[in-house]
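HUMAN: Spend a minute on the protein record below and explain its fold to me.
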Amino acid sequence: MEKEYRQPRFQPPPGATELLLIRHGESEPARPGAPFPLVGGQGDPGLAPGGLDQAERVAERLGGEHIDALYVSTLRRTAQTAAPLARRLGLDPRVEAGLREVHLGEWEGGLFRRMVAEGHPVARRMTDEERWDVIPGAEEATVFSGRVRETFTKLVAAHPGHRLAVFSHGGVIAEALALAARSRPFAFLGADNGSISHLVVTGERWIIRRFNDTAHLDPALTVTAAPPT
């Protein structure tokens, strides 16, 4: 019989680290005159009712999968999103400061949302130039990119051969996938709240397996192209 070479399904290489990148659920709305509380200089809203529902749906989606560790950022919306899955798996989320959202400088505390919604010229420039640091006082592009790379490299080094659920933010997820794809900075911006993206890291190779998987979410609760914070 003639030898055949079939196309197999993808399997992570031995020793590779799988990272399930989950954007936090929908957070509380920003309201004029009521800025979000700050943690480390960054807005720290809790989850809105829809976000709490999205967190439960993430837990239903991933609760039957093998996951070795859960990570969250220093901002409570990620911890609240991770909580239902942590209970199902019996895992304590680990806090990793490097997973926090890009710092928005003078537009922290919810002002960013207003500026984007109202089409402020700096917000338009931010989108056109694909860089956060056109916002006054915001985290510099090279610093933010370096932080994201260093953080993910650290997680991978600590978990060879493991599968991690990483609860983070839209800007961080976009930057990690842009680094993997060597793409434009904002090419992966717009992950929905409660969505799952999937990155496999083996040595120096960062392999994107999924982006913005929302099969577990009710479409009525999914925020399309939501702002990153």
User: Anything to note?
Assistant: The chain has one domain: 17-100+140-221.
